[in-house]
């Protein structure tokens, strides 16, 4: 993000569409995709060739706009984490990605129930699709950069223990999620997932023993 010059200097929305253009040298596009497919990333011998988003996500509502940003970040995650699998192997085996790989075009298909923050979030929902799990990790990292999240939540963070670890109390989590959602222009569930990964409740309990 820093290399592309798109890391905000203060907490605010990340231009994720512009990040895709600068990082992969392509703009994302929209197409009429089958029901249940929110997007796909197409790879070639030189890496990412195309990032396509379902036309169904083009909507003027705030929720839909934020859902669109989440999907673009998810696809960017595939581009960042999985391009090498196609560069070094001209035809990756279907077993590597299961039914989510369209071998005719070397596309990783992203289904609606695979993208956290779009259909909902459940703890321990990992279902063995490691490629989707990895792409989902990119959502929080790209849309809610750690340094900016810490800056935004500074008034709510408390130091605990002799080492001064900063934690977020349970009673402050709803306010924190709303703060991040408003500042970074993401749906509240995306903010909650990011908070859970950066400030796990289990760590809070451990530090107060």
Describe the protein in words.
The radius of gyration is 18 Å and the shape is globular. Strands 1-3-2-5-4 form a five-stranded mixed sheet. Strands 6-7 form a two-stranded antiparallel ribbon. The protein is an alpha+beta fold and 209 residues long. The longest helix has 26 residues. The chain contains eight helices and seven strands; from the N terminus they run αβββααββααββααα. The model has no long low-confidence stretch (mean pLDDT 86). Helix 2 packs across helix 4 and helix 6 crosses helix 7.
Number of helices: 8
Per DSSP, what share of the residues sits in E-state strands of 2 or more residues? 15-25%
Low-confidence stretches: none
How much helix is in the residues?
40-55%
Widest sheet: strand ordering: 1-3-2-5-4
Write the layout of secondary structure elements.
Elements: H1 16-24, E1 29-31, E2 37-44, E3 47-54, H2 62-87, H3 94-97, E4 101-102, E5 107-111, H4 130-143, H5 146-153, E6 158-160, E7 165-167, H6 173-184, H7 188-198, H8 201-208
Parallel strand pairs: 1-3
Antiparallel strand pairs: 2-3, 2-5, 4-5, 6-7
Helix pairs in contact: 1-2, 2-4, 6-7
Question: Could you write a compact summary of the structure shown?
Answer:
With 209 residues, the protein is an alpha+beta fold. Helices cover 44% and strands 15% of the residues.
Question: Which features would summarize this protein structure in a list?
Answer:
44% helix; 15% strand; 209 residues; alpha+beta; five-stranded mixed sheet
């Amino acid at each position: 993000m820093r290399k592309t010059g798109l890391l905000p200097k203060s907490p605010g929305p990340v231009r994720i569409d512009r990040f895709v253009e600068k990082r992969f040298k392509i703009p994302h596009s929209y197409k009429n995709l089958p029901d249940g497919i929110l997007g796909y990333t197409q790879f070639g011998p030189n890496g990412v060739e195309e990032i396509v988003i379902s036309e169904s996500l083009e909507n003027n509502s705030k929720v839909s706009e934020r859902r669109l940003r989440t999907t673009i970040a998810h696809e960017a995650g595939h581009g960042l984490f999985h391009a090498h699998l196609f560069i070094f192997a001209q035809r990756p085996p279907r077993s590597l990605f299961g039914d989510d790989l369209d071998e005719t075009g070397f596309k990783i298909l992203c289904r609606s129930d695979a993208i956290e923050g779009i259909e909902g979030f459940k703890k321990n929902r990992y279902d063995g699709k490691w490629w989707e799990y990895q792409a989902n990790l990119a959502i929080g990292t790209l849309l809610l950069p750690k340094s900016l999240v810490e800056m935004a939540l500074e008034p709510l963070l408390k130091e605990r223990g002799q080492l001064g670890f900063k934690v977020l109390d349970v009673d402050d989590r709803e306010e924190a999620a709303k703060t991040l959602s408003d500042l970074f222009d993401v749906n509240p569930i995306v903010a909650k997932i990011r908070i859970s990964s950066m400030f796990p409740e289990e760590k809070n309990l451990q530090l107060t023993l």
